[in-house]
Amino acid sequence: MSPVAWISLWAILFVATHLMISSRHVRRRLVAALGDDAYRGAYSVVSLGTFIPLVLEFAWHKHAGAMLWNLRGDSPVRWLAWVLMLIALILIVAGLTNPSPAQSFVPAAKGAPHGVLKITRHPTFVGLAMFGIAHMMMNGWVGDLMFFGTFPVLGIVGGMHQDQRKLRELGASYQSLIGATSFFPGAALISGRQKWSRGDTPWAAIGIGAGLTVALVIVHPYLFGGHPLG
After folding, report:
1. H helices within the chain, ranges in order?
2. Within a domain: residue 90?
3. Spatial distance between the Cα atoms of 209 and 58, rounded to a whole number of angstroms
4. Backbone angles phi, psi at 186, to 5 degrees
5. Distance in angstroms (rounded) separating the CA atoms of residues 151 and 127
6. pLDDT digits (tens, 9 = 90+) for 27-70
7. CA quadruple 60, 157, 161, 24: dihedral positive or negative?
8. Are residue 153 and residue 116 in the same domain, yes or no?
9. Are residues 50 and 93 part of one domain?
10. Are 201 and 139 found together in one domain?
11. Which residues span the domain enclosing 92?
């Protein structure tokens, strides 16, 4: 198979296994057979078992396939990509410190949403989607688009999948969370369903995310070659 086909295969396996193992029926049977801790371990093993080959295949065949666009010389697009990366890293860090109650391993939320959950109830998924979109803007090769497109697909489809599973498991309590929050960043705030307060600002995540962004700008050419995000 061609490099693009291999990248596509591992990308599909990575997303498909995530959704399959976390689906209600499969997850319930695996937890019953293995227990919670062993299920989490199996979930991690399968995730790494598909993600590592995906990364390696892309690393060996970066910029494979036809080039559909080339915006590397467009400064406004590059700055937009870095802004998306900054927001993505802040959301991912904030999601790790204040995880969504939709995540498989997070207990049911108690009380009103706070912090980053007022922006989106899926901060980690949204951050991953923005990460992929930022890189897709700067890398118009088919192989690159298949690799980086994995992250928006996982972010959007994974978030929707978790919402549906939690709705079936928790019913009205999770429906209340959906009604009070939004998947799309900022939609609940714009619509007035949520009100932002000073105490909601994830200052630690902003600081860490900004620091990671600066570090990536510096080390990206040495680790990945070429221009940042390229």
Report:
1. 3-22, 24-34, 36-60, 75-97, 123-138, 142-170, 172-180, 187-191, 203-224
2. yes
3. 25
4. 85, -10
5. 9
6. 888 888 888 888 888 888 989 999 999 999 999 999 999 999 98
7. negative
8. yes
9. no
10. yes
11. 65-224
| DSSP code, position 227 | S
C-alpha–C-alpha distance, residues 103 and 155, integer Å: 12
Q: What total of structural domains would you count in the chain? A: 2
Report residue 168 as tokens: 């079936």
Helix axes 75-97, 203-224, angle to 10 degrees: 130
What pLDDT, on a 0 to 100 scale, did the predictor assign at position 70? 86
Average pLDDT, the chain: 89
CB burial of 167-205 (b: ≥16 within 10 Å; e: otherwise) equals beebeeebeebeeebbbebeebbeeeebeeeeebebeeb
DSSP secondary structure code for residue 107 in this structure: P
Assigned token pair, 202: 């994830």
Handedness of CA 40, 44, 49, 50 (dihedral sign): positive
b/e string for 19-29 if b means 16 or more Cβ within 10 A? bebbeeeebee
152-202 pLDDT tens trace: 999 999 999 889 888 888 888 889 889 999 999 999 999 999 999 988 999
Q: Is residue 148 a contact partner of residue 141, using CB atoms and an 8 Å limit?
A: no
